[in-house]
## 1
Amino acid sequence: MMPIGTDPLENGARDKLTLPAAPELWALYREHGDKDRRQGIRQGLWIAVLTYLLFSVTDLVLIPDVALYTIACRFAVAIAVLSMMEIEVRIGAPTSRLDITCAVALVLGYLGWLLPSLMSNEHENLSHYLIYGTIFMMGANLFFSLRFRLSLLASGVMLAAFFGALFQFAPLDRAYQITLGTFFVSCFVFTSYVNWKLQQERFKVFVNALEAKYLQKEAVERGKTLLRLSNTDYLTGLENRRSIDSRLREHWRQWQQEGRGFSVLLIDVDFFKRYNDFYGHQRGDRCLIQVAEALHRIIQTHEGSIGRFGGEEFIVIAKAASDEKVLRLAEEIRQTIEQIQLSHEERRDGVSIVTVSVGAAVAKVHSTSKLEKIIDQADRALYAAKAHGRNCARLYDPSDARARDLTENIAALLKIAVERDLVSLVYQPIRNLKSGAIDAVEALMRLRMLDGSEIPPSLFIPVAERTGRIIELGNWSIRNACRELLVKDSIGLISINVSPIQLKAPGFAASVAAILGETGVSGNRLAFEITEGQEMEMHSDVLRCLVDLRTLGIQIWLDDFGTGFAGLSWLRLIEFDLVKIDRSFLHASDTSEGETMLQNIVRLIRDRGPDLLIEGVETDEQLEIVQKLGIYRAQGYHLGTPSSAERLMELLTSTKKVDVPRAHSRKKLKLAGATS
Ligand code: C2E
Ligand code: MG
Ligand code: MG
């Protein structure tokens, strides 16, 4: 993984390789091939010494009178320098020392031959033999690859010794001295020059080779950087989707061919959009980086790969192939993120830290035929985890998938519902227990599939809310409720369920006003029920909308009181006209604790002031409890089941006259504590 949060391109640029400066290059040059050179020096010295010893024969032929001395000197020098060299090689002396030994060997060899030779009386032969001195010079400059300065020194010493001998050795005539002297000097100059050139050339070749190596290394590095970049997520440094896709294909291939199972986990940061909106994008990025780092640390301890799948979604491919192991890993991931304790004050679900939802799927034999399927399954599991209130881990469950398919079908159906006449309203009486009359009715929406079968509101309302269709459907139900019942004056008040999505939608109050205007119905014959269980933020726009609706004369009722967390705070924030106590409290009141609980709730609401209604009266006993509590408004199958407008009209005409409710006292919305 690249260092998280840094720009890899910049890193790549900084990693650019450059050649060292000249002195370092020379040092490198000398170090370069050091081992081979040591071997070469040693071998060279042995060859040179053996050749030197062979010249004993020419000593015997050309200067036989001093040959004994020259040969003795030759052997002495040979033994000394070779022993020296062997010792140095054995003790691992530096290569420069071996070079010096070679230079000393050349000088000693030259002097060891020259000095005894000068004592020879074979002047004629000696005058020719002296030329052999240039061989030593060539040895210093060309045979051994000594450092230039060292070979110059060695050959200089030889030149000086030669001139000393040339002018000390009286028997030679001037012309010969001049000829041989200039020959020696030329030989010194030329071999030194060639040596110098050769060294330059070798150095150049070395530098070029080094440069080529550097360039190649740079190209390889650059290639690696590019590959890393193309596979890395720029923000988190994790693998990107491209890289993860290819890993997935590899796991898939191994699974298909070798039966090695694997699992896929999708991780989504809960309420990340709100985090971004509240804290800003920079902190949003930092949050993602921190989550990525934590995930990376966990995955390092497991066999798996981690990548960013896009936005706030991460993906893990793990080798774990059993449900238990995968669930354990998913849970570990969830807990780890929870433990970072990154604050997230804006989620408004009672939790104030960053959490993740995890959906996991295991590649199972015969269950999936396509690679994409496993991602889809993990995605469905993630969806289930979110639907379960987030901050939890879920394993793919085929039955969830069927629910999801149904959800998709419902979403498609909702698009054509109004146009194809698939929606309708039923009305459930709200009884006045004192008079027995139907005080009001609650409009409840119904949806039919194309084959005529019904879909319960518990399924289609959440889909309509998620897809935004609820706005169109909501307006439709208000208009239809007005048209079906209110215009006929057959019923005094209709309560209509209104979703928070509608209240938040801009212009909702205006569209309600338009419907009232269009149908000629007065607003005070409508009540809107808001369910506290639904996720609703009491934002200023919602509160403003409620004020506008009340200005139209519409009552605001709190539905299903006691089922959510928000009820009490809403009661403090808004003065509802009526509170409907959820049927679960009535149904639980057959025990003494349940009864006490219901009594407490009733007292609590009465203290706040709104009217009361109890939902879900199904039996005589329950009706009695309601009456004992002094509540005179109730709703339930025992008092009237939801029915169509026609059936309701029949019911109304066959029973007693409908009481039109008194004009309701206008209560203002209390905005205490609300943020503007
Ligand atoms: P809700 O507003 O609390 O509606 C009352 C629900 O309780 C209705 O179910 C009704 O049929 C049922 N009910 C009435 N009396 C009894 C009883 O004695 N016992 C039991 N067990 N149930 C009883 P329904 O029609 O299935 O509606 C469910 C929920 O769907 C509603 O709860 C409401 O929250 C939502 N809903 C229904 N129509 C609409 C609508 O037009 N718009 C919106 N936004 N939500 C709606
Ligand atoms: Mg309701
Ligand atoms: Mg209700």
## 2
Amino acid sequence: MHPTTVHILQLLLAEDCVSGEDLARELGLSRAAIWKHISELRSLGFTIAAQSGKGYVLQNCPDSLHQALVHAHFAPRTIGRQIIYLDECDSTNARLKHLAEEAAAPLAGLTLVTDRQSAGRGRRGRTWQAGPGEALLFSVLLYPPFPPSLLHGLTLMAGVAVVEALATLGVNTTLKWPNDVYLEGRKLCGILAETSAELDHTNYVVLGIGLNVSGHPPLLEQLSTDLYSAGIQPKRAEILAKILTSLEENYALFLDQRVDEIYDKWRLHSHTLGRRVTVHTLQGELSGVARDITSEGALLVTLDSGEEKIVTAGDVTVRH
Ligand code: BTN
């Protein structure tokens, strides 16, 4: 999309109605030139009404995830400044890892988004499924300048970023340790951070996020949900823009080594703390009450025996 067309789209998104005259003045173009850009937007699937004597009204946007449409919703700094959209791929995490390995120079903030994945990856070796076009499926490439031992705040940071982004759309979500996003007690969004690192150096991190928007697959083990089921119907480009903005803000805290602030926000939105939980670890199952997260982002559980246990990896079931 031409940058001027993106600019016009931004103005249409910001106002209920914009006159051709105002657009022409703001952009220093003739009204005929404005009309051409409006026609281009229409040909891309935007519904734009022309109200005589008033101006242009953006009535509907296509549910597309192309960079130009996402950029119409926010002003990217690093994260999401470059967005690659693919109709289909195996896994956005796998593709982005591949790009990171092949790149001659760092591609900080590069975002890969797709409509469908044939081999979506979930945590702990599971698959992640979503019907075509039903979910927001994307990955972001980051280069944290810390050793892997200091990356614990990163996955919790991503959960916080998603919750805060959804709050700006009026959606109230919570976090289940380590970083599942829940809506009305059901899983809405999963996050998978994959790291390439040496002992004392992180090469890169691919942060993958899958958020159910207009549908969710019937999962066996977990009760999941999507935004439409909860009566909320934002366009995926807008959700992506909000999440990328929120990731930029929260990642800045992480880079400033203000992980405590991220953890405080995590606690605030937690769906886990203070509740009875069963934790499924590779070593077996533990039951008790989730008390807190530690300064390393691990889950502190008081077991039924009274023993305090620090859980660094596992799946948590929250008992209601
Ligand atoms: C989980 O809850 O198990 C994590 C799921 C993460 C899924 C997302 S979808 C986009 C990105 N690409 C992948 O292959 N996985 C993540």
